[in-house]
Amino acid sequence: MKDQFQFKVSDIVKRKHFEKAMILAGHEGINRMVKWVHIVEATSIRNLLKGHELILSTGIAWKEDKELFISLVEELIQQNAAGLCIEIDTYISEIPQEVIALANEHQFPIILFPEEVPFVEITQDIHTDIINQQYQKISNLENYSQRLNKRLLSVETYEDILQFIFSALDMQIVFFPKNQQPVFVPENSPEENQIILQEIEAAKQEPNSYIASAPIFLFGQEFAELSVYSKEIPISEYNLLILDRTATALAQHLLRDLYVEEKKRVEEFEWLQGWLEGDYSAAEIQNYLWDNRNKLRTNDGVVLITKLVHTAEKPLSDITYFKLLIRSVFEQNGFSVFSVEKRNEIILILLNHRGSKNLKNRIKKAIESILGSEFIKKQTSAQFLIAAGKVVEPLTEIHRSYQTAKETLRIQQKMTNRQTFQFYEDLHLYRLISQMSSQTDLQELLSEYLQPVIQYDLQYNAKLFETLKVYLECNGSKQETANRLFIVRQTLYHRLQKLENLLGADFMEHEKRVAIEFMLLVHEYLYASQPGTGLDAHSSIR
């Protein structure tokens, strides 16, 4: 592994002032990493250490207390110190066997100086080397980043970036693209790959100092993961920084590829428009999908229309980025996405790659993810309506889904309780009203059932129309109706009596009630999208 920054105990004992030193215990721990050197003459140092410190001491603090000595060594082991160097015959003449046994058990090096040594000179010598190495580390990291950024300008595939980090670290590199097979650099046998994958997976549950991973996010979604695996030496902070920089570079490269791909899709507009109009045969559609490397796993699809409703003159900040966001999220939920942009609408053809049973839930999940993204939250000047058409099969019927998506959007814009996204199959009575409106004079029907109430409200502002609507929604519960209208029961009784006088005492009987409820929906369909309080709209059917 190419990492010159692992300063170990075995390196320390080869330095000046350690010529006559001997390792008394913990020989198996001489590869412990050393990050700093401390001179300690205290009996408790638990709060003074950060880990990987080499401790120098004369032993004056515990020279006559074996139990205190043992306790100190236990603290050093618990705080992950690199080792303990003791000057013999100045204050202590021997090391208790219990301390030696404890050090051997935990592979904790204890080094003895047989004569007086200058601790200050030792710390200056080692610290100078450590600081120089830290400066070198920063320099190398900056150099790596600059070379990587230059490489980004010319690389064709992400494999080039994987080779680049491998050449820097000389460790096993594993790249996990979302919904694709992992990529190994260098290549191994299938058996070796399987073992590495199992160890990486296990490290997610229990951290492993020989394995490190960095997620790669695009549009707030985890798009891939980059892992490094070391067989011999624990992964250092320097390795982690290299991993982090490389993960960022991969994210930029993948985003660039997606952006270029999205730009190319603009050229597909005419063909996709013909598909939406029902111009192509099954064979033509199949050939088009093959040309776009899209292997069908099912034969069903659905059309969504995303309408951008601008509340200010400022448009959506980056329509291409918005389409990339849509594509990325829907693909992760099991759809292939083809898009057509028309003025303030983006028409999406979604081809299903999974089972049909949970298709609607996957669309909902994707839409919620898009609307909850940071990009959308920042678009304070725009609102969205998303209308989903009917799921169709085979794909030659996509034009039917498109027509129903347009119908959904039309109805959606007329609804009082407008939802951000709506499915055609959930519209029920609104679809019936929409069809009736092209063949029947709905205003005449509306006038027949609701004109007396509307006229009375216009004349006396009695709020009978609102009371009727809430009373029906509450299934005739007077208490619930009064609570929702924030009025006392006596006021409600007075209004209900007026409604009986205007609509007839039988207005709550089944058939008449259903007709009135239907007319309330008709009223909403015809007038909810008009400006004003609603009374202005009422006046048009007097």
TrEMBL record:
Signal peptide: none annotated. Residues 464-521 form the PucR C-terminal helix-turn-helix domain. It holds the Pfam family HTH_30. Gene3D superfamilies: PucR C-terminal helix-turn-helix domain (1.10.10.2840). Residues 325-411 form the CdaR GGDEF-like domain. Transmembrane segments: none annotated. It comes from the Bacteria. Residues 11-130 form the Purine catabolism PurC-like domain. InterPro entries: CdaR-like_regulators, CdaR_GGDEF, PucR_C-HTH_dom, PucR_C-HTH_sf, PucR_dom. Belongs to the CdaR family. This is PucR family transcriptional regulator ligand-binding domain-containing protein.
